[in-house]
Amino acid sequence: AAAGLSYVGAYVINTYKSYDNFLQDKYALLPAVIIICVAVVMFIIGLIGCCATFRESRVGLGVFLAIILVIFIAEVSAFVLGFVYREKVKTDVQGTMHSVFEKYDGKNPESAVVDYLQEQLHCCGVKNYSDWTTTQWFNSTGNNSVPLSCCRQDMKNCTGHLDQLQEL
Q1: Which of 1, 8, 114, 117 has the fewest CB atoms found within 10 Å of its own CB?
Q2: CA distance 4 to 152
Q3: Residue 23 pLDDT class (50, 70, 90 cuts)
Q4: Rounded to an integer, what is the distance from CA 6 to the centroid of its chain?
């Protein structure tokens, strides 16, 4: 389990590099770091539990049980906090995404990240294609279209025009 959590934490940190323009707050990496720390602690606790079981030590097993109870309480607390603050996180991420979409010009690094994100997630805009209608890029193009990264991958002749919504 500790190895699996370590892998997940490292994967999240590695993936963060692709989306760091959306998550400008460096505290966004905090959950991944916590996951890795939890993995290290789980490994140590598992070692204590194995040693206590192997030696058939009542004190060692009691300590192991106490540690497991503390971890369970911490997990329940983390779940409750995540549930309570989910809307704040959603609002913060959407606000950051809107600011990145406002900077879109089709050429800068933020634009490449927006295109990559839309292609990978098969989406268009933060909520939908209408998010593009308020951006500077949309108004500067003057042709009522969204970026080509909004186009469905199976549509070869997609131009991004809003009069062809079935292709987005």
Answers
A1: 1
A2: 34
A3: low
A4: 17
Give me the amino acid identity at 146. V
Highest averaged pLDDT of the listed ranges 38-52, 83-97, 116-130: 38-52
Share of the chain above pLDDT 90, in %: 2
- Residue among 117, 79, 114, 115 nearest 99 (CA): 114
In the three-class reduction of DSSP (H, G, I as helix; E, B as strand; rest coil), residue 133 is classed as helix
Q: Token match 């323009």: residue?
A: 21
Contact assessment for residue 94 and residue 86, using Cβ atoms and an 8 Å cutoff: no
Centre a 10 Å sphere on the Cβ of residue 40 and count the other Cβ atoms it contains.
Answer: 13
**Tell me, what's the pLDDT at 91?**
83
Residue range 12-22: mean pLDDT, rounded: 68
H/E element holding 34? Answer: helix 30-55
Per-domain boundaries in the chain: 104-167
Beta-carbon count within 10 A of 36 CB: 19
